[in-house]
Specification:
Blueprint: H1 7-11, H2 19-33, H3 41-57, H4 60-69, H5 72-75, H6 92-99, H7 101-104, E1 121-127, H8 129-134, E2 136-147, E3 163-164, E4 173-180, E5 183-190, E6 199-200, E7 213-224, E8 233-236, E9 252-258, E10 265-267, E11 270-278, H9 279-284, E12 286-292, E13 295-301, E14 309-313, E15 330-337, H10 344-358, H11 373-380, H12 393-406, E16 414-416, H13 419-422, E17 436-438, H14 439-449, H15 452-463, H16 466-479, H17 502-513, H18 518-522, E18 526-529, E19 537-540, H19 545-548, E20 552-560, E21 564-573, E22 576-585, H20 588-605, E23 606-612, E24 619-622, E25 630-635, E26 639-644, E27 653-658, E28 670-678, E29 681-690, H21 699-711
Parallel strand pairs: 1-9, 11-15
Antiparallel strand pairs: 2-7, 3-6, 4-5, 8-9, 10-11, 12-13, 14-15, 16-17, 18-19, 20-21, 21-22, 23-26, 24-25, 25-29, 27-28, 28-29
Helix pairs in contact: 2-3, 12-15, 12-17, 14-15, 15-16
């Protein structure tokens, strides 16, 4: 005979479980394995075993004996009661009435013809961090039920009324008596004819088809209280499902999803943030401005402040939901920034300071000058040919955006994913073969999730195959004048002969940024695909600097075993936009840190002097034998000079050289070059481009033009 299992194990409860937990566990087993529900032999054994365990553990005396002696307490081999298992103690009807009331009736029946509240409806709304703190109003569009105006909610045809259900006599329930191993058991079920209402409608209302209600799209105004947190819900009474038998309406529960803030982090009713301070500010003290949810506040930073020092701004946190006049606090952690680049004079001053602090004098020793890592990066490694992983997709993004701007494709176009696209490994949005998705959503997947399946689907849609699309990518690279970039695929997956360089990637990033739409995608931290479907897919930007670095709003990450961790990031502050390229780092943390240091160096040490805007007319060129008499040319990008901070604007001369115009011309075609000169030395150059399409006159057009000239006496 097989050894009996532990009764606690049988029911799946701990040995210190209370009576309620034991009863609940047995109830769940009974719902699955009772012979009237599951007639299999295996189920009968499980139910019998569970029943035996419950009969012992539900009885205080028997449970005490079992805890002391185990199964021996009931088989005569131990010091307990002996006599073996004798079935349920107490009244059988009580057990089934209590535990199985909803399944078997338990000897009792209940009427279901009384008023019952309608079911609640659930929906969700997304709000910003600021809105969660300050409160806001949101409008939701929902399909909600209204009483039918024709039958006034009765469901019956005008002039008729519902009748009492003859099957259940208006009770809404029927009772079925069945024979079980425990004897006769009554099973109470919802009446199949009236579905529990106790009423039957013979002649249904033609407008609502007997439901008594009509569904309409409604605008619901939701008041979001100040202080609400992510995941909490707002109850709007009476906006749910209609009640039964005249019962009150259910409620509408609106769950709030709060987007993450780029600076602030919430914990209960407190807000936390990090504020960078300079080395000098930390050493000498300073008046600094701190961002809070209420705007900037001034704070007197004490001299000698150490990094990771935390201070509390009282009452600058989140309002309490119970009392809006009671607020949490804002905790600020100061991080001392160490200078990443200094002049020779600054370094000498800092050395003198260090020696003074340590009581040392300057020694006349010769030291080896070490290049600054940032300067060394650009001077030494900018043209090194390396793998760049998914940063490859920036060229794919350029081609997609050019096709949209030219009208070849539209954002709303629906693309059917091929099996080839769906089978792409690596980062993906998990397209299924033959799945349909819009160009906008596919581009979103490329920009935020670096999706390989999405970029291949777009490549096939535009060019017919990935190979043909890659040819377009390499043609674009050549057109940009890049000499250290060759692509073998559209994804950036490791492949022999697939490479680029830091400098080329910077030019590609700048070209991509000339299409303003890119920032609408690359600057978003989180979004969704397949909305309003069971397969709703959450997108989180792979470029974490978009959330953590001040001013960052793009561009592209990359990672493969060969390329390691790569990043092209752009940020804009005070009208100056910078691009940083990092390639071949060992992990994402280092990659992000290096990119942030590059941007910090630029923002802290450089400034822009604008010479010409990209919209400025440089020259108007007369055309012959063309569909236009003339064409205006402008700089391809803003013409500017990057210089050290603190240096005043300089008066520069410009020189313009126009190439021989070859028709036809497309908008954006390079037609010349503008140079910026300082004391006759070229310090910056920029391409000049056509502002519109111009075609060459055909023979008939040229003939008609000459006829016009003759008739006008010109020829």
């Amino acid at each position: 005979m097989a050894e009996k299992r532990d009764y606690y194990e049988v029911l799946g409860v701990a040995k210190d479980a209370d009576d309620a937990a034991i009863k609940k566990a047995y109830r769940e087993i009974a719902k699955k394995y009772h012979p009237d529900i599951n007639p299999s032999a295996e189920a009968a054994e499980i139910f019998k075993e569970a029943s035996e365990a419950y009969s012992v553990l539900s009885d205080k005396e028997k449970r005490a004996q079992y805890d002391q002696f185990g199964h021996a307490a009931f088989d005569g081999s131990g010091g307990g009661y002996g006599g073996g298992f004798s079935g349920f103690s107490g009244d059988m009807g009580d057990i089934f009435g209590d535990i199985f009331g909803d399944l078997f009736g338990g000897g009792r029946s209940r009427r279901n013809d009384g008023p019952m509240k309608g079911a609640n409806l659930r929906t969700a709304v997304r709000i910003t961090f600021d809105e969660s703190v300050k409160g806001c109003e949101k409008e939701l569009k929902l399909n909600l039920k209204d009483p039918c105006p024709t039958c006034h909610g009765s469901g019956a045809k005008p002039g008729t009324s519902p009748i009492t259900c003859p099957k259940c006599q208006g009770r809404g329930q029927i009772t079925i008596t069945q024979q079980s191993m425990f004897g006769m058991v009554r099973n109470v079920q919802v009446c199949p004819d009236c579905h529990g209402s106790g009423k039957i409608i013979k002649d249904k209302c033609p407008d609502c088809r007997g439901t008594g209600y009509q569904t309409k799209l409604k605008n619901i105004q939701v008041t979001i209280p100040a202080g609400i947190d992510n995941g909490q819900s707002i109850r709007i009474r009476g906006k749910g499902e209609p009640g039964i038998n005249g019962g009150e309406w259910g409620d509408l529960l609106v769950e709030v999803a709060v987007s993450q803030h780029p600076i602030f982090r919430r914990q209960d009713y407190d807000i936390f943030s990090t504020v960078p301070v300079s080395f000098v500010q930390a050493a000498l003290g300073a008046t600094i401005r701190i961002d809070t949810i209420d705007g900037q506040v001034e704070y007197e930073l004490k001299a000698g402040t150490q990094t990771d020092t935390q201070v509390r701004l009282r009452g600058k946190g989140v309002p309490s939901l119970r009392n809006k006049n009671v607020r949490g606090d804002h905790y600020v952690t100061f991080v001392v920034q160490v200078p990443t680049s200094m002049t020779k004079e600054q370094k000498e001053a800092l050395k003198a300071f260090d020696e003074a602090m340590n009581g040392k004098t300057t020694a006349n020793t010769t030291t080896t000058k070490k290049k600054h890592p940032i300067k060394d990066f650009f001077e030494k490694d900018k043209d090194k040919q390396v793998a760049v992983a998914s940063m490859t997709k920036m060229v794919a993004q350029i081609i997609i955006l050019e096709n949209i701007e030219s009208g070849n494709i539209k954002w709303s176009d629906v693309v059917t994913a091929s099996k080839n696209a769906a089978d792409m490994g690596g980062s993906q949005i998990y397209l299924a073969a033959n799945e349909k998705m819009t160009v906008r959503d596919l581009f979103k997947g490329i920009s935020m999730a670096s999706a390989n399946d999405a970029v291949v689907a777009m490549a096939e849609y535009i060019a017919g195959s990935e190979d043909k699309f890659v040819k377009k990518m390499n043609d674009k690279v050549k057109k940009l004048g890049l000499k250290n970039t060759v692509f073998k695929n559209a994804t950036g997956l490791d492949e022999d002969g697939h490479f680029s360089s830091a400098y080329d990637m910077a030019i590609i990033a700048r070209t991509l940024l000339s299409h303003q739409e890119i920032l609408e995608f690359s600057g978003v931290y989180e979004d969704y695909l397949r909305v309003n479907t069971p397969n709703k897919f959450w997108l989180v930007n792979t470029n974490k600097l978009v959330r953590t670095y001040n001013g960052a709003d793009g561009l592209k990450t990359g990672h493969t075993d060969n390329a390691k961790y790569c990043l092209a990031v752009t940020a804009k502050r005070d009208g100056m936009r910078l691009i940083a390229i990092v390639l071949g780092e060992d992990n994402a943390k280092v990659r992000n840190s290096e990119a942030a240091q590059l941007l910090d160096y630029g923002f802290n040490n450089k400034q822009i002097q604008l010479i010409k805007k990209s919209t400025d007319e440089i020259k108007k060129i007369k055309l012959d034998k063309a569909t236009e008499k003339s064409i205006t040319i402008v700089p391809k990008y803003d013409v500017s000079i990057l210089k050290d901070k603190g240096i005043s604007n300089t008066k520069y001369k410009t020189s313009v050289k126009v190439d021989k115009i070859v028709l036809p011309l497309k908008k954006g075609d390079v037609v010349g070059k503008i140079s910026v000169l300082d004391n006759n030395k070229v310090v910056a150059t920029q391409d000049l481009v056509a502002t519109k399409n111009v075609d060459k006159l055909n023979f008939f057009q040229l003939f008609m033009k000459n006829i016009t000239k003759i008739s006008s006496g010109i020829l």
